[in-house]
Design a protein that fits this description.
The chain has two domains: about 5-80 and about 155-240, Rossmann fold; about 90-155, no CATH class. Helix content is about 35%, strand content about 25%. It has nine helices and ten strands. The radius of gyration is 18 Å and the shape is globular. The model is unreliable at about 1-5 (pLDDT under 50).
Length: about 240
């Protein structure tokens, strides 16, 4: 989907964040359309996680504007943008199901959320772990629990920070399918990952950061356009960020 054609749901303009003398994100500007999947790529220290934390309200940017539709977002945006972080922290004394019930109550989901919650558990092979407390879950199961609970909240914008870390092959495949389903239903998705080639099939567009600055963006085919037919997205990424 083309953002300019479909109309921007999320608009980020000039997002800038410093930590002391370190400029972590420098005038980051982009749009995400409804139902669009955008990949945020960059080497370690490029500013991807910092950008995500600013977008979801966990960090306050020094400069910049974040618009949802025509509304400027402030610090409280929990019902608009949700983040699935790289580190799968769950509540150790809550069961898998209690995590989902907690999110349903916090997001004030109406009656009927339980069937969707059960479907999410089944998709990620967590049905048998429904009554297992978070402290007893493996890293992969904690990640699946976090994904299921966050997706259940049904916010219009989802941020995935290295979402496949710790997931087994079945979980990775199911996550890719889920992202496609969410986008088809109109959810706007941003994905930060080091698995470069996987973004070629998942994402409509790619943004590449280096030291907090956008060094390239566009559809995968556009980014490959200056190379030969065998040039991969990984080749492009390594050339741009060298």
């Amino acid at each position: 989907m083309n953002a300019s054609a479909a109309g921007s749901l999320l608009h980020v303009d000039g997002l800038t964040k410093r930590f002391g003398q370190t400029l972590a994100v420098d005038r980051l500007t982009f749009d995400v359309a409804r139902g669009e999947v955008v990949g945020l790529l960059g080497p370690n220290g490029a500013g991807k996680t910092t950008a995500f934390l600013c977008l979801c309200g966990l960090l306050r940017p020094d400069v910049g504007t974040i618009l949802f539709g025509d509304r400027r977002l402030g610090g409280d945006r929990g019902r608009t943008i949700s983040l699935i972080p790289e580190t799968p922290d769950v509540y150790p004394m809550l069961t898998v199901w209690e995590h989902l019930a907690f999110v349903a109550a916090s997001a004030r989901l109406g009656p009927g959320w339980e069937p969707r919650a059960n479907d999410l558990l089944a998709r990620f092979g967590l049905s048998a772990e429904r009554d297992t407390v978070g402290g007893s879950l493996s890293k992969g199961m904690r990640q699946k629990t976090l994904i299921a609970a966050t997706v259940l909240a049904n916010t219009p914008v989802l941020l995935f920070d290295e979402p496949t870390i710790g997931l087994d092959p079945r979980g990775q495949r199911e996550l890719r399918t889920l992202i496609g389903d969410l986008a088809a239903d109109g959810t706007s998705i941003l994905i930060s990952t080091h698995l470069i080639e996987s973004t070629a099939t998942l994402c409509d567009r790619i943004i590449i950061l280096k030291k907090g600055v956008t060094v390239a963006q566009g559809a995968v085919a556009e980014l490959r356009a200056n190379g030969d037919a065998h040039r991969t997205l990984e080749d492009v990424f390594l050339e741009i960020t060298a």
